[in-house]
Structure formats: structure tokens, C-alpha cells
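Following up on my earlier message about fe (ii) ion. Here are the inputs again, as you asked, copied directly from the submission form:
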Amino acid sequence: MTAFETRTLFKQLEAAVEENLDRHMAAAEDWMPHEYVPWSEGRNFASLSGEPWSAEQSRLSPIARTAMEVNLLTEDNLPSYHRELGYTFGRHGAWGEWVNRWTAEEGRHAACMRDYLLVTRGVDPEHLERARMATLQAGWDSGNKPLLHACAYVSFQELATRVSHRNTGRYCQDPIAETLLARIAMHENLHMIFYRNLVQAALEMAPGPTLRAIADEVAGFVMPGRVVPGFARKAVQIAQAGIYDLRIHHDDVIMPLLRHWRVFEAAGLDAEGEQARQDLAAALEVLEARATRFVERRAEAQAERSTGQ
Ligand SMILES: [Fe+2]
Ligand SMILES: [Fe+2]
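Thanks, got it. Here's what our run produced:
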């Protein structure tokens, strides 16, 4: 798309942003983060004559701790996401209003997760703070994605975050953590619906470029948590535990959105649209094969471990 075409589409999409902002405001409950934290469990740390943190104080397993920490640090990097969204969506009109509202809502997620983890001594607070500093200093750079690419990416990313919080909550085996993360996951779902509807509107206005953006974002998707220290190793642990793996990414994140957008049913596409759809089909094949191989290898490793015991 030329810069002029992008600007025109940006203006055309503003009506959909406005409509979905209204829908979002009507659907978004004003839930209170402090209501999800067991404050009575809190106590001082060492410098206030309390007890320093140690691993046995945590009721979370090491993998649950890792997943919680990655999810929290991903949420913590909100200043970067705000900057990136502001760059693409701007500061004015309905687009700007959405960026600020979304940012305010997202701020709740890190706040209540951190409160929960500190009060319950779920993770090492010193380690967490050092990792938070490193994550924010690394920042998040989406590489100045064009408008449609940004809309496609955040659709997948909000759904990925929803699934990740929900599955982490289940894995924690603590009803308080599960309730908290289910609440956040519902919030992420509303964000996903907002972006999903924008992409839907864009598909109607500019099917070829929108399909191109979807295909590119499926092929090149990376989690925003990638800048968290030790992310590669932690993502493997999280995948091995079945909290978020390639199978889940394909089945529960990518495919539901592609089905919703009916990308393989759109008729009358131009050459750009057809090419994008072919590229998307190829990217899905690669993802499907990688997901299948990952699940097979995980099962083999588990079988080896159980026969070795
Ligand atoms: Fe969030
Ligand atoms: Fe979100």
C-alpha cells in the first residue's frame, strides 16, 4: 500500500474504531484489581524486620512460578506497547482514545499479578524486580509495523495472552491465582475482539492488503515476552508443561481468528490477495508440522522419563 492509501484506510477505519470503542466500553466491567489479592497473607521482608524470601514459602511449583513471572514481565513492558501503538494509531480521535483506554486497562494486569505474587511470596521479589528492570530497559520494538500488520499482530497477540493467562492460572493449582488470571484473561479477550473487529472491517475495505498483513503476521509471530531475560529457555519449559506450546498457538490462537475472518472463503480477490492467501496456507502448513513434531517429541520424552524411573 502507498502512504496515501494507508492514510485513506486509516481514516476509513476510524468509524469502526469508534463503534468498537463504544461496544468495548459497554462490555468492559469495571473490575477492581485489589479484590483478587489475599492481602491477609502479606508480611514484611527483611529490611522491615521481616523474613527474606525463600523458595519454600511459595505455593507455586517452579514451572508455575516461571509462567507467572513471564506473564507478569510481559505485562510490565506496557510503556513500550503504549509507545508502539501510539506510533501506529496516533494520539487523536477515536484511535487515540482507544490507545489511552487500552493502556489504562492493561495497567491493571501487572498491578494485581505483582500484588498477588508479593503478598503470597509466590516468586523471588528481588529476582522479579531485576528482571522487570531488564525487560523495560530492553523495551519492545515491533519494527514500525504498518497499520494493517499492527492490527493483525495485536489480534493474535491479545488472544495468545488470553490463552497464556488462562492456562497459567489452571497450572498454578491455587484457586486465588486461577480466579485472578481468569479475570485478566477475560479482559484480554475483550481486547482481542476489538482488534479482531477492526481487521474484519479492514478485510471488507481492502481485502488484498489485509490478507497480506495477516499472512505476514502468522508467519512471523513472536510473543511480546521475547525480551524477558531467559525467555527462550522459559518458553521451552512453559511449552513442555503444556501451558503454551505450538499446538495451542495453532489450534487456540491462529485458527479461531482465521476462521472468524473466513480468510479461505473470501471470493473475488485480486492477485495480491490470492498470493497472500497462498502464503498464509504455506505458513499454516509449516506451523502445523512444527506443532505436530513438538507434541510427538514431548510425548516421547515423557515416555522415556517414565520408563527410566
Ligand atoms: Fe494484559
Ligand atoms: Fe490485552
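One observation from looking it over: The two ends are 59 Å apart (CA to CA). Hope that helps, and feel free to reply on this thread.
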